[in-house]
């Protein structure tokens, strides 16, 4: 009896509106074998694997895992069935550390019984990921993120392992480590689906191949039975006359266009380069050896010293930026504007050329963009199509269109064909050769020696930030490029001390002058971590308290401290709720009016002479109103298409209107027995304040060590990655608004006790104050980062400032001046610290 395939997809179809992504595709993947899946960008490979991994639901077809039909496959169920995927664009959460990313992806039952950090460190070592567990993923390079993605998949010990363009950002050495992991996996019986655009990798690693074209399966065969030309014909549906265009006949005889002498900066030192008109110059070297940093310096995007002369003119600073066009390696992070159309992405760098009198001409913009898109053969339904709907190759062409529309005098491209299919790659090579033939010199960084051989007239080799060789003419071959790179990296002595590049840690030795001390590493991590703002706030709180006490000893009187902490508690609860929402990347403008409305409701029932049952019922009604408000906010935002500002501002107005309708004027005095109970103290410390502290600590622990907390941070940091990791993003967002409303309910109880009367205007100020507290606490308004402890300290500082101005005999306007100054200082410090990569730390 034939053993059932580890994974079978039969008759799978998927459409997005009128676009058919897959049409009746079938695929069988056997255990212990590598099944290559080939096709051009947009052929349907990633969609098919999205269906196989549970992140995409098919319109038709069946999915069978180990002979068991699966009616509905979700990411959670796929993981339980032993299906793991390494995405082309890593499903990592940038605002979390490496260790937290692994914990988020690996179910608790898969974690070892021993110390998890030792296990995670060994896991990273196995895949060649040269990172620390405490490193924040946002600070890592694309290659290291890809290796973390691989480590997460291997940790699951899957029965089916899907690798989607896994080597696109990797160097040769890292690719070999990946291939070794694939071989080990198949030896254990794992079925591997390997998506790639590189036929050499298919030859090296795959047993059989299936080709998709235009959403349909166009062929299946054993790799050994196909030639490269046959595979290419299956992929593109036509003959490719040549992958690479003809090179310049005599580049040395052309006029020098670019001359670089003694260029030094972070990651490279004393580098030189010459490029003639009509010439394409390649920069080679193992990833992290300074070639990409050198390219950024040529673009004016990295500070440097030395000489850069273009067409006889020495350029520096802004003049260098204006004269060059730079295409980064990570187009999704650094180049594309994901919320904008193809037209907007292409035109954004050339808007001045389309403008007259400072106003952009729509007709000139459209005609210019259309002409460039046609010249580059960009395949898109419309110029107004969202750029993220295009295939990788066409996205890269849009990036090129932007560069060309800017009419640069120098084109700089870092890994220009990364993640691009063979057909589009050939077109990009031709475009780059046409650009160089027009007189614009082109400098290219590539980790693919075969690409450098076929494309470039001259290749400059980097090692440890230095130019160690220059190859021209007949010497520009894959063998000589690779040999020079390997020998230079192996035998060249240590370069002068430079700041460490991401991924360079493995090359360090204890005597290396770049090696940091453990204390320096800990201080750097602390400065970049989520608790640095808390430390700063604590110091500011102590300093302000000491200064105020020195001018007025009554500041620390028990009565004042009790009053200050009581007022603080209301703000603390509401601010903690605001933190939950801001962690998702949202904002809740309705918390202030909600607190006011809850106090107004209480003023009708929580009064002297009312029965205990009615008082309890009033509290229940207040809680229900709060939950309903949070639920309404969440539903409007996640399912109603409202932005967070629009939805919560609408509710802000509505809640305030209801409050004024119920209580046009102050009225309904709250029972003193209730207010006394709520404001009860232990010594001079209100019990409610102690409860707020416990809640803040509990939320902080949950944020760091529970699935809820990791899901909250993941959803706020990168919603797409969070979905692929199985986080229920919609539920996380809706519950965040509900959680904020519940904490606002507790804040309203304190507000009720403070003012003792139904007043519809008293809660409004808490909206701005709560946001201020969260920002002071170091949370990112973009989501994903923050601290409940920081928020508590932020609220403390706000209340202390309000209190201190009274004791310092300052006018009320100083309260706002101080708050504004504090926010500006905090934003400046935190932004600067967090933007600095480890290489700059």
Automatic annotation (TrEMBL):
Entry keywords, A to Z: ATP-binding, Cell membrane, Membrane, Nucleotide-binding, Repeat, Transmembrane, Transmembrane helix, Transport
Subcellular location as annotated: Cell membrane
Topology class, membrane: Multi-pass membrane protein
Domain of life the protein comes from: Bacteria
Transmembrane segments: 531-550, 556-577, 613-632, 639-662, 682-703, 734-757, 814-833
PANTHER family noted in UniProt: CARBOHYDRATE TRANSPORT ATP-BINDING PROTEIN MG119-RELATED, GALACTOFURANOSE TRANSPORTER ATP-BINDING PROTEIN YTFR
Pfam families named among the record's database cross-references: ABC_tran (PF00005), BPD_transp_2 (PF02653)
Any one Gene Ontology molecular-function term assigned to this protein's record: ATP binding
Organism: Amycolatopsis rhabdoformis
UniProt-recorded name of the protein: ATP-binding cassette domain-containing protein
Disordered as annotated region, ranges: 491-518
